[in-house]
Design a protein that fits this description.
CATH superfamily: Protein of unknown function DUF192
Helix content: 10-25%
CATH topology: Jelly Rolls
Number of strands: 7
Order of helices and strands: HHEEHEEEEE
Number of domains: 1
Low-confidence stretches: none
Radius of gyration: 15 Å
Shape: globular
Strand order of the largest sheet: 5-4-6-3-2-1-7
Number of helices: 3
Largest sheet: 7 strands, mixed
Distance between the termini: 33 Å
């Protein structure tokens, strides 16, 4: 089950190494880079939109600190991991009504086996917002964009 994501990550790293043109690499792997404005309580922040297979698979791997909104095709208990992410994240899971159903604090992978885990919400979700920021948000809060 872990073989496919590892294979895709390996292919992505190889592509990145052999494609010298960073704009071409970004276009092939990351796409157009759609930015969303996310409103959480009284704050508004920008986030990259991950709305297709490749963007969701790559996520924030090997990126600088930024926000990302994952839009899934249907509600489920989607699991996330921290492969290639070098900074801690808050993972905010939301249902189809954009209501927060769970929040997880994720730590980067390290040599410590306790960090080798996936993060799964308690309830099904359709949207997932990953951010390095500590936000004042709780389960039950509404999010808009």
């Amino acid at each position: 089950m872990l073989a496919l994501p590892l294979f895709v990550m390996l292919c992505t790293l190889l592509l990145k190494r052999f494609i010298k043109n960073k704009q071409l690499y970004s276009k092939l792997i990351i796409g157009d880079g759609i930015q969303m404005k996310i409103k959480l309580k009284n704050s508004v922040m920008e986030a990259d939109l991950a709305d297709d297979f490749w963007k969701r698979l790559i996520g924030l791997s090997f990126s600088k600190k930024k926000n990302m909104l994952f839009s899934m095709s249907y509600e489920s208990k989607w699991s996330f991991w921290m492969f290639g992410v070098s900074y801690p994240l808050n993972i905010i899971f939301m249902n189809k009504n954009k209501e927060v159903v769970d929040i997880k604090k994720a730590e980067p992978l390290s040599f410590n086996p306790e960090t080798w885990r996936t993060y799964v919400p308690r309830k099904p979700c359709k949207y997932v917002f990953e951010t390095p920021l500590n936000l004042n948000i709780n389960v039950g809060d509404k999010v808009s964009w």
